[in-house]
Amino acid sequence: MAWFYLFIAGLFEIAWAIGLKYSHGFRVFWPSVATVSGMIASFVFLGAALRSLPLGTAYAVWTGIGTAGTVVLGIFLFNESATPLRLACIVMIVAGVVGLKLVTPA
Q1: pLDDT digits over 17-69, tens only?
Q2: Domain segments of the chain: what residues?
Q3: What DSSP character marks residue 21?
Q4: What 3 state SS string does 1-31 have?
Q5: Displacement of CA 2 from its chain's centroid (Å)
Q6: Is the dihedral of CA 36, 71, 73, 3 positive or negative?
Q7: CA dihedral 87, 88, 94, 97 (to 10 degrees)
């Protein structure tokens, strides 16, 4: 269950990061509420995952999921650049997340 919790925490991290953009610096009410809710949910699920996963692994995977997901959504939602080098870097982040999953018992 710990890896499932960590995956959900990463998805909520993506949600709150995207929410920050829509909240315009916490000046728009509902996107701000969604952003803070996503932050809380992300930390709750990360905390649940940390009950049995090593801190360094869990934190790296959590931020990796958040980073990769936020970049991909930034490309689709905000028309951010999708250069081959940028995409290659995201692939490396995903490879690191998968690698940590494969070498970490739990």
Answers
A1: 999 999 999 999 999 999 999 999 999 999 999 999 999 999 999 999 999 99
A2: 2-103
A3: H
A4: CHHHHHHHHHHHHHHHHHHHHHHCCCCCHHH
A5: 16
A6: negative
A7: -140
Distance CA 59, CA 76 (A): 26
pLDDT higher than threshold 70 for residue 106 = no
Chain length of the chain: 106
SS3 for 51?
Answer: coil
The pTM (predicted TM-score) of the whole model is: 0.92
φ, ψ of residue 51 to 5 degrees: the values are -60, -30
Token pair belonging to 82: 């999708």
In contact, 42 and 12? CB cutoff 8 Å: yes
